[in-house]
């Protein structure tokens, strides 16, 4: 897996005095000491090894010298990890109900905050089960199938695009590309000025959002919602639907759709259009096929390859 860790055994010169003992995760019966950002965690080697291939391999070597001990335990200093991220993972390891803190109605911004550190550490140290748990929680809100997309739309999951934008760099950093197409799709709803001023996204991702907004609008116009935006009665229409179709959409409505294109939104209010049976069947079928096409093309719109590529990348 990319970005796998290589914790380093501490050098003897390191001064033990400089470490602060973590108030919650410094157990008197702990068997190893992990140092993160000058904070010492005295935890259980067997528990860490049980969850992490990287830590398991680390201790599969001869006993350390005396100088690598802290408080009588072997000491390992982690490099480049955030203290808060590591504390979150310790909570997962030592509190069996920790993931239950995420409630069904936890808002997405809080959910991303909750999961981010755990996902980073579990990815880096090859904690497969914990990483998979994080991914399943995120994928419940960021689907990688059209069925999943219909499910989140049907459940009325509330997305505030400017708040969930953090999922994009997180998914890139931790190799969870399956969530990216839907995340990008949602982020095309951020107003252009806000995208440009955004401090979370890289410029390349900003460009993908802006270009994606245009592509989705084109698809909404030509593939999924043509019957609303550019209606032409079907060739077998016998009752003149062209003449009877109410022209509800004003320029402002069209501008608003263009600003927040949503071609995957399922249209269900067919009766209100009062079309003939032939026209309604034709456009329902076009709408259904169009949504499937948009979903298939979603990754390529954001330069992510195909769904197959994405699935291979994530499982690699
Ligand atoms: Zn008709």
Structure description:
It is a single chain. The protein has 316 residues and is α/β, with parallel strands linked by helices. The chain has a domain of 102 residues. Helix content is 51%, strand content 8%. Strands 1, 2, 3, 4, 5 and 6 form a six-stranded mixed β-sheet that branches. It is elongated, with a radius of gyration of 26 Å. The N and C termini lie close together (7 Å). About 2% of the residues have low confidence. The structure holds zinc ion. The site of zinc ion has 8 residues, from helix 15.
What is the total tally of β strands?
A: 6
Q: Multimeric state of these chains?
A: single chain
Shape: elongated
Q: Helix segment count?
A: 16
Mean pLDDT: 90
Q: Output the structural class.
A: alpha/beta
